[in-house]
Amino acid sequence: MAAHILSGNAIALKLTERVKENVEDFKAVHGIAPGLTVVIVGEDPASKVYVGRKHKACLDTGINSEVIRLPETTAEEELLATIDRLNADAAVHGILVQLPVPRHINAEKVLERIRPDKDVDGFHPMNVGNLCVGKEHLVPCTPYGIIKMLELEGIAIEGKRAVIIGRSNIVGKPMAMLLLARNATVTVCHSRTKDLAEVCRQGDILVAAIGKPEFVTRDMVKPGATVIDVGINRVGDKLVGDVNFGDVAEIAGHITPVPGGVGPLTIAMLLHNTLKAAEIQRM
Ligand code: NAD
Known about the structure:
alpha/beta; Rossmann fold; 2 domains; six-stranded parallel beta sheet; three-stranded parallel beta sheet; 11 strands; 16% strand; binds nicotinamide-adenine-dinucleotide
């Protein structure tokens, strides 16, 4: 195996330590702790696990954390009313509605209801717009974490070719904006892209955010490339990424594992964003 494995766990720990120190400073100055409220609707098992991790990470970092659990049958109006209440609560600096929400609820409407300065996921159109014009206020946690990892690992972005597979609002698109802002030449691929393997092979940095187990194989990877695997797929009782790790690690320069790669970075950046939201509201 040739590739250097990028440990998301180790980097997330470093990032979290930094947030913890800054949370202490925030408390000393303002006399209160930053507060995050996560709203979860329904019983999706993976969502419950993610919410539990976020809650614990907040408490470990000195951030106040509340989880509001609503039943699957919750009406859209009720969820919107919950968000309105949290928007008005000065002790709540960050609001996160865990996705996916049940099908009878319009996710877009929900995300647009969150006050932009409390939108720690960075999904509100105002924050998306800010990102597009180069203002990085509250940036989506997963791609932001990937950028922090590349920077901390000293992996050059400027002038490099970056190829992203996946164009979701959560990962693919904000990833493209962040890489573009750091002067990479960015290509975004999706389900209708022709000659996908050939396009992917141009990437010095290849980000896979597809949601298909072990989709990326070595023939899609430029030798020496940095391969970032965002995918989380349950196969039997195992979690696997979107990259065939064993195969690709033989020719990549750097690669993230699943689990222990991008996942922990996402949580670290949620903590970072919660503190940032609190700072913005206290300015
Ligand atoms: P999504 O379903 O919204 O988007 C998937 C994207 O993949 C789409 O843009 C689609 O065009 C593209 N795609 C699908 N099939 C393709 C194909 N055959 N060829 C090329 N492109 C194809 O997914 P998402 O929300 O961006 O998540 C992607 C994966 O990342 C999922 O496994 C998800 O669980 C995982 N994820 C992980 C984290 C984390 O913290 N590690 C965070 C968010 C998402």
